[in-house]
């Protein structure tokens, strides 16, 4: 699937040539070489990173809140990142000239990335601070949703007072794109995501204990506040960075953990975390492939495809699994 | 503390919670202790604060005042969940929703305080898990999902998990709620046996007075008003009238002779009962349900035989072959008696 993603794209390149380029054999068209090594490989890598990061952060949220509908966006991570990006794109326009923004480019800009990360971290910090006062995880969920809604409405106000041109730029970002991450950015995104994943894997034992609820977890030796901070930190690392770089990609975070639980029929996070990485990667690559509409010269934004493909998939898996458990 | 068998001691402990800036006392101040091998039942009417006291003793919520000494640590382990987890294991009323968890992995979670960074289990862990599952009688469904279990089975699984945690103290909040009678008796017997064989100190809150009176080594009676706690060997509490004092409410009467509660409708009518064994016992129950105060000698009086009853009234004697017929006759005779007046 990884290979297919590289092989297919708006510009048609023969399979044989793609293989030759990947194996860095000489003698291929320079343009093709550029497209494959500078655009398609980074894009496929980003897809893998985003798939892993988003699905694992979704899994963590669902366990922490004991709610199968939880995902990174409910805690306001996505909203925070969006606010950061909006601040640069929309706010920047009124201070700096429109020209500067154009120069920076939509997703290639460092500034936007940084703002996105800061926005996500800011919201997370706020949520962590509130979480120290709250004992109940359901309360946390409600607070997260409130913070998220408030953040999004700030963005809406900002959009209301902005130029149409700027809004269009911002809207394009919200559609999500895997293609904007290149070079060093890819290394940074990869590094941050890997840190988040390791943190998450190390806390898998803690997550298992949390399956029984806070009280049981505490009676087994989990310090609830610390566990919460660790989980929220790794989630914001994962979801915050990916959202900043790729735009708010929805659905992966909510769908993949469900699929993983159904397919692997387990609740153990030691198995679920790698399983989420695997399924998340496969799903997002599949979505990207579909988005490129093989055979056509255009590509649809990833955010549209994830929900379109993911929703029926989840419904189908849940239904077929239910049948199994009834008749099995 | 000086006694090595004393596992937990509280000193002037006040349990309760904070609302706004005010603290609300639920129970206490109380000074109690738990000994190794002892099974203690915490009884009390609804709303007396059994759960709050339990949560405080198990470190889930801080005490308002006083201290709890666990294994002579002066209260230090209450501040560290990691250390406390090796001393107290819990069975709570919290619902378990994750149906995907297998019975074995749920019981294995009990090894959390001992297992490595990633929760990997060693030989010793597996041995204890297997033991816990055997003792609780759930060895045969290790691979079943928790979501497919009945209430009774699930409660045994939660008990096995607590056992796997291998702690000297166990606390169970209403472990027999929602269970049918055989399961309730099973769980209680199991806990009683465990306390004896493993020398654990077990504290459980329950509404099962009859069962608690049979299996408890000590009973803690929590009163609704004032949070006072009466403790003692169950038989002592029954004989000195403490049970009656705590539970007697309007229309309900604790019967010292049978150790059970009766609903009584004023007891304006008196009746005598003579007889022995099961026949007399069940006749008494039926008469009490009918609203009679049953005494040894009175008029009218009933003599209960193995399968027949004789009713003696001022106007003469009458024989019945079933309780239904006897009760029917009593009802009509009482009504006619009242009609005369």
Task: Describe what you observe in this structure.
- The complex is a heterodimer of chains A (328) and B (341).
- Chain A has a single domain, classed as ABC transporter involved in vitamin B12 uptake, BtuC (Orthogonal Bundle).
- Helices cover 76% and strands 0% of the residues of chain A.
- Chain A has helices at residues 2-7, 15-22, 30-64, 77-95, 98-104, 110-131, 137-160, 164-174, 183-202, 204-210, 214-219, 224-246, 252-264, 269-291, 302-327.
- In chain A, α3 (30-64) packs across α13, α6 runs antiparallel to α12 and α13 (252-264) packs parallel to α15.
- The two termini of chain A are 33 Å apart.
- Mean pLDDT of chain A is 75; it is low at 94-108 and 323-328.
- Chain B has helices at 50-57, 81-84, 103-108, 123-135, 151-164, 181-198, 209-215, 234-239, 242-247, 277-289, 323-340, and strands at 6-19, 22-30, 33-35, 39-43, 65-70, 88-91, 169-173, 201-205, 218-222, 229-232, 252-255, 260-263, 269-275, 292-295, 301-304, 309-313, 316-320.
- Chain B is α/β, with parallel strands linked by helices and 341 residues long.
- In chain B, β15 (301-304) and β16 (309-313) form a beta hairpin.
- In chain B, strands 6-7-8-4-9-10 form a 6-stranded mixed sheet, sandwiched between helices. Chain B has a 5-stranded mixed sheet with strand order 14-13-15-16-17.
- Chain B folds into 3 domains: 1-87 and 167-250, 3-Layer(aba) Sandwich (Rossmann fold); 97-166, no CATH class; 264-340.
- Classes of the chains: A mainly alpha (328), B alpha/beta (341).
- The A-B interface holds A 66, 201-202, 204-205, 208-209, 211-213, 215-216, 218-224, 261, 265-268, 270, 325 and B 58-60, 81-86, 88-90, 92, 94-98, 100-102, 105-106, 109-110, 112-113, 115, 117-119, 148, 165.
